[in-house]
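Bit of a strange request maybe. I'm writing a small parser for C-alpha cell strings and I need a real example to test against, not something I typed by hand. Could someone generate the C-alpha cells for this chain?
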Amino acid sequence: SGGYYTAEEEAPYNGWPKALKANGKMTVTESEIVIDSKEGKGISIEGAVTINSGNIHIISGHEGLESGSSVDVKGGNIHIRAGDDAVNAGGTTNFEDKIIRISGGYIYAESDCDVFDSNGYIYFDGGICVLVRTIDGGDTAIDPGDNLAGKGVHFNGGTVLAVGSVKDM
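Reply from user aminoacidic:
Good idea to test on real output. This should exercise your parser:
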C-alpha cells in the first residue's frame, strides 16, 4: 500500500535494477500493482510469491515476476510483458521446491524468452493462462526443470493456451 513511486530514467544501475524487491516472501491480496521497468526486472522476491487476488500489470526488460522458490497464483488478473522470463521460479538448488502453480485467476504473459520458467515443476490446477513466446529461438512458452525427465509439467485443470513463436521465412 502507499503512494506512487518513480525513479530517474537515467540513473546509473549496477546489474538488473528491480522495480519491487523483497528478501522474504510476498503475498498479494486485493491490490493493484503496476510496474513499468523496461530496463530491469519487474518483481524479484527471494522467497515464495502468493497471489490471491488483485490486478498486476508488469512491463519488464528482463524478468517480469521472479521468485527464488515458488510462484502460487490462486486468483487475480495478471498481465506481464517481459524481455526474459515472464514468470520464473528459479534458483540453482533444490529443484523440488521450485514450483509455478496456477489454481485460479487469469494470466496473460508474453516474453521474448521463456514465458513460464521453473527450475522445478509447473502445475496447472485451474484458472486461465495465455502464454505467448514472441521471438524465435531455443526458449519455450512452458519450461519446467531440466532434471525432471519429462515429469515437470502437470495439467490438472483450468485452461492453458501456449503459443510459440513463428520463424520468419
